[in-house]
Amino acid sequence: MYGTMGSVSGPLKDWNLILAGTDEFALDLIALKIGNFNGLAHVPHIKSVHSRGLGIQSLDDIDVVGLSLEELRR
To answer: Residue 55: which residues within 8 A CB-CB, separation 6 or more?
Structure first.
């Protein structure tokens, strides 16, 4: 979902992808990157995790298997 209400009530965006992994936070970061969302500082759970130094701190720390992020963003 995207738009001003995002995952609360925004319209669906059809990527025709399946994202899977063992780290839900990493999946959120990848999904936001694929969706070209640059406002990570405004996503409450991401802001909280980063401010406490928990979880993945950079996309470079995530192993993406399959299509590259560049291919996924097209």
So the answer is: 23, 25, 26, 49
The answer to whether 34 and 26 have CB atoms below 8 angstroms apart is no
Give tens-digit pLDDT for 19-31.
999 998 899 889 8
Helix (H) / strand (E) element for 47: namely: helix 44-51
Q: Residue 60 above 80 pLDDT? A: yes
Residue keyed to tokens 């990570």: 40
- Per this entry, what is the length of the chain? 74
Q: What pTM was estimated for this model as a whole?
A: 0.74
Phi-psi region of 68 (alpha: psi -120 to 50; beta: other; left: phi over 0): beta
CA 13, 11, 55 angle in degrees (round to 5)? 65
Distance CA 74, CA 70 (A): 7
Q: How many CB atoms lie within 10 A of CB 29?
A: 23
